[in-house]
């Protein structure tokens, strides 16, 4: 899964990606950038069903 890395200022393939649900009930993927190691997040489209990959 790709997500935008603010440090690299480009999209990176997310490392150790996992799905988390925020307090608002929104589903997002959380992982680390393989290049700089910064934590990167990506909001996923569906918020109702926390689908796991
Ligand atoms: Zn990065």
How would you describe the overall organization of this protein?
This protein is mainly beta and 53 residues long. The chain has one domain (2-43). It is 0% helix and 49% strand. It contains no helices and five strands. The chain has strands spanning 2-5, 10-13, 15-21, 27-32, 39-43. The strands form two sheets. Strands 3-4-5 form a three-stranded antiparallel beta sheet, with no helix packed on it. Strand 3 and strand 4 form a beta hairpin. 11% of the residues are buried. The site of zinc ion has 8 residues, from loops.
Q: Layout of helices and strands, plus pairs?
A:
Layout lengths: L1 E4 L4 E4 L1 E7 L5 E6 L6 E5 L10
Antiparallel strand pairs: 1-2, 3-4, 4-5
The protein binds zinc ion.
Q: Note the total helix count.
A: 0
**Strands across the major sheet, in which order?**
3-4-5
Terminal CA distance: 11 Å
Instruction: Give the % helix.
Output: under 10%
Heterogens: zinc ion
SSE arrangement, N to C? EEEEE
Radius of gyration: 11 Å
The overall pLDDT, averaged over residues, is 89
Q: Show unreliable segments.
A: none
Shape: elongated
Determine the strand fraction and express it as a percent band.
over 45%
Q: Give the tally of structural domains.
A: 1
Number of strands: 5
Largest sheet: 3 strands, antiparallel
Structural class: mainly beta
């Amino acid at each position: 899964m790709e997500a935008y890395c603010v440090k690299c200022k480009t999209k990176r393939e997310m490392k150790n990606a996992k799905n988390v649900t925020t307090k608002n009930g929104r589903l997002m993927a959380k992982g680390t950038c393989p290049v700089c190691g910064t934590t990167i997040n990506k909001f996923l489209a569906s918020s109702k069903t926390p689908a796991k990959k």
